[in-house]
Amino acid sequence: MALKRRDLFKAGAAAGSLAMLSSGAAHSEPARTLKPITGDVEPISVSERRQRIARAQGLMQHLKIDALLLEPGSAMLYFTGISWWRSERLTAVILPKEGDITVITPFFEEPSVRESMTFGDDVRTWHENEDPFALLAGLFREHRLSSPRIALEGSVRYFVVEGIERSLPGAHLTGGEAITRACRMLKSPAELALMHKANEVTLTAYAHVYAKLEKGMQPEDVNAMMRSAQAELGGSGIWTMALFGEASAYPHGSGQPQEIREGQIVLMDCGCAVEGYQSDISRTFVYGEPSAEQERVWQLVRRGQDIALTAARPGAAAGTVDDAVRTYYTAQGFGPGYQLPGLSTRTGHGIGMDGHEQINFVQGEETPLVEGMCFSNEPGIYIPGKFGVRLEDCLHMGATGPVWFTVPPDSLAEPIGKMGPAIEA
């Protein structure tokens, strides 16, 4: 009996044929223990973080904003390097329109917060029986601002709004996305290099896991393998999703029991972080021999990715990328528009320190594409009651056009793909 295509891939992978993941040597062989590949990464420098703050302060002055308030999360990490978590106790960074940052945190947290700081020295603490927002009010009084205009980063919680309004009744609160988005949307070479490495971790893990898929496995088995592989390779903030058969027709899955069977779709959507920067890659396999319909839909989705890549030209409105893919799918009998069977989601989303960032490849988005923007490219086709196919690879906008972080595969016979061009930080 002839070997099936997946058996050939598995044998070849075990023998070291995964060198196609990059233009150099293979990063791993599935039969061996995986080793970290993140030892050469360069964290974001203090100098770059200070440049980000200077850019934000310039925008604040232009917008007549006195201060930007950040809670723990990706925005705080982006501007300050402070890695912290959210609780009912306020920890916040106040970024003024000029001068150094101020950190407000509980008294008992100060030593730990300072460990995470890479610059700045103004840390103001409050005890459990005190009001942290009184510290905030005092800070603005020091600057002789009785009615400050305070911008809030988009994820700031409502109890913070209430606290500011109570302690600073003259304050004018406004959204801070015009500041934070303008800074974070355009990635520097150092950021792109970290995203490239995060994608390398995830793609290498896919090759490792694909060769180990077995009949009868359940989603938790595959997810566990993928989490372990990414962790061994040096990724953090790991997330995975594995969907089999009909469940693959629903982009974010189903709670119905699933296990791998012959001729069945296996759709995986996985990612990790390296120094806080994200990957997001989807792959669709068939366990055993694909049907003619599975093969056709897979190739349509792969063509959809190329259409999106071609449409993503510098200066084009982001929404036109989605339009181009949807026009093609409609001509192939899917849709129309966002209707099923077809592409019921946007074609892609922004990505960076958060897995989903603005701007999106979605109908009606008029923001022009410029160098430094990063997106997923994932024009899946979903057929309720049957299966779905999603191929997702991320790209960054270069000076002359889009550049893949990971280059998608060309066929179900070799369904992993390879790394895009290396990026110098």
TrEMBL record:
Residue intervals of the Creatinase N-terminal domain: 52-185
Pfam family, one: Peptidase_M24
Domain Peptidase M24: 194-396
SUPFAM superfamilies in the record: Creatinase/aminopeptidase, Creatinase/prolidase N-terminal domain
Cleaved signal peptide residues: 1-28
GO molecular function: aminopeptidase activity
UniProt keyword terms in alphabetical order: Aminopeptidase, Hydrolase, Protease, Signal
Matches recorded under Gene3D superfamilies: Creatinase/methionine aminopeptidase superfamily, Creatinase/prolidase N-terminal domain
Keyword Protease: yes
Identification of the protein by name: Aminopeptidase P family protein
Species the sequence originates in: Parahaliea maris
